[in-house]
Design brief:
The chain has two domains: 99 residues, Helix Hairpins (Orthogonal Bundle), CATH 1.10.287; 157 residues, 2-Layer Sandwich (Heat Shock Protein 90), CATH 3.30.565. Helix 1 packs antiparallel against helix 2, helix 3 runs parallel beside helix 4 and helix 4 packs antiparallel against helix 6. Strand 4 and strand 5 form a beta hairpin. It is of the alpha+beta class and 271 residues long. The protein has six helices and seven strands, in the order H-H-E-H-E-E-H-E-E-H-H-E-E.
Length: 271
């Protein structure tokens, strides 16, 4: 076998390995999606069957007892609420899957990242206040004097900011409910670091246990209640940052803080 044949064989083997890795990842993803959809679908089927039984019972009664009828209607309302919530859970999972798999055009734009972050701080904080009206966060911004312009896909980076901010607020809100005299605090930092720009989010919420820190960027890993999370938020964030040629890391101490640090190339060389 000559040198050219050896190179061709090596190239073919590498191609086969990449294909096998993709197929393995696809199998894992398919299994995870099936699991995520199977549970709420089972709930929908069961509550629908119970609702049909309740309606049939009410129809059979010519002059039903008013108290019994009200109890049955309350059960029906409960079932319909469960059906709605689990249907939404399935829809959210599928939507996040589309976001996870949809190739985005790499249309980078020179963007003021400080301005985008400020907009989403206000948006996410307002949403958090709607969930918990007495929720207050003491914020500290560490921005450079001049605006930092970074080549990004604004919609994608906005999604990252929103997810990280929402997670931070959720963590601090849980801590408010469980820790007396606790004051939520956030630090936002944006600075130039050579050819990169560093964006930092630090909250003093519940933190992330050591055993979870290596898993939080994996698809479908979540510590939230199942109806409230598909486990794709941080995974999508990680993919977006990697697509920008950057990195996202986390430092944390359980019960004390979580510190997410994003590093992005300030200028994209490939447009």
């Amino acid at each position: 076998m000559n040198e050219t044949d050896e190179k061709n064989e090596i190239a073919n083997l590498q191609s086969q390995i990449r294909h096998l890795k993709k197929m393995a990842a696809l199998g894992e993803l398919t299994a995870a999606v099936s699991h995520e959809i199977k549970n709420p679908l089972s709930f929908i089927r069961n509550f629908s069957e119970l609702s049909e039984e309740i309606v049939a019972t009410l129809q059979k009664e010519n002059s039903p007892n008013e108290k019994i009828a009200e109890e049955q209607l309350e059960n029906l309302r409960f079932n319909l609420n469960k059906i709605t919530r689990n249907s939404q859970r399935m829809a959210d999972t599928l939507e996040r899957m589309l976001l996870y798999s949809r190739p985005a055009p790499k249309n980078y734009h020179p963007t003021n990242v400080q301005k985008i972050l400020d907009e989403f701080i206000y948006l996410v904080y307002s949403t958090a206040r709607a969930r918990m009206p007495k929720f207050n966060v003491k914020s500290k911004k560490k921005y450079e004097k001049d605006a930092i312009i970074v080549d990004i896909i604004p919609g994608d980076i906005s999604r990252v900011f929103m997810n990280l901010l929402d997670n931070a607020c959720a963590s601090m809100q849980k801590k408010v409910e469980s820790v007396e005299n606790y004051e939520p605090r956030m630090i936002y930092e944006i600075k130039k670091d050579g050819d990169n720009t560093t964006i930092r989010f630090r909250d003093n919420g519940l933190g992330i246990p050591a055993k979870n820190r290596k898993l939080i960027f994996e698809p479908f890993f979540t510590t939230k209640n199942a109806p409230n999370s598909s486990g794709l938020g941080l995974s999508i964030c990680n993919e977006i940052i990697k697509d920008h040629g950057g990195s996202i890391t986390v430092k944390s101490r359980k019960g004390q803080f979580a510190d997410f640090i994003i590093s992005l190339p300030t200028r994209q060389t490939l447009k």
